[in-house]
């Protein structure tokens, strides 16, 4: 059977959704049986104009006919699900819808979108939810018992360590003899970096002089987050809170290796929430304990007291307590980090995750 992944986000596009789909195709059991139609060359969605998704309608029709596709994996319920819904009977194809988080949340925001979403989901052969939070949302919206499964993302093993690179970053950012709190992600409010800074302020007041906070990534709220640091940490903020900007894959793993604690207390802001958080798994693969916000689909990735600590993402006091708890207890940090690594290797192997999807679709 020929499958088509129909998606707006795919490598080299960055982000959790693109990562999910890129690995889905890479680890597909029969690589010759899956093709990809994506929007990396703007062939599906126009940047401007009315009915911006209309090119996707024609691209999809031609692609399915040419390649004799039998089953479509719909990567984004709106607008791509509309195209597939309309053409499914004409092209005599089945389709499965994938849901991640914000994609589904946005699809429920008004009556018209909810109507379209209901039509698309009812006609779908199967539904794959990337986390249990979306599964709960789906069941509240529409009873689809029996044709839905939860399959979390996987993670690739931490398989190298460069002592030379570690020393380079320690020297560049003055990290020698420091306890390193590390965050990595798109700089947007929902990731919770602003609340970490507010919690960090209290930790500095109580004498944690050796603690530094490294934030890696870029995003639309970068200036807002830096302003929070300037206002709350004072003149020493640039020594205590280090913004690295975007980093390479090698630098990512090196910072994870150097860090003592990984933190990202993500929160839900008007339906925009963390669907899972692959970076939590990556931190665990580096044997690091994590601190995460108890919101969205994060609880699939982080089990409180097993591989990290879950906190109220809107409480700087709760975040500060968690940081202090791990900062002051090396044995606990190491135990959570080691448990986390074992759990990721056991439960989040990409080959196993993709095989779950394949077996679900073909049984």
Automatic annotation (TrEMBL):
Domain Glycosyl transferase family positions: 168-343
N-terminal signal peptide: none
Transmembrane segments: 72-91
Keywords tagged on the record: Membrane, Transmembrane, Transmembrane helix
Keyword Transmembrane helix carried by entry: yes
GO molecular function: hexosyltransferase activity
Listed Pfam families: Glycos_transf_1
Transmembrane keyword on record: yes
UniProt protein name: Glycosyl transferase family 1 domain-containing protein
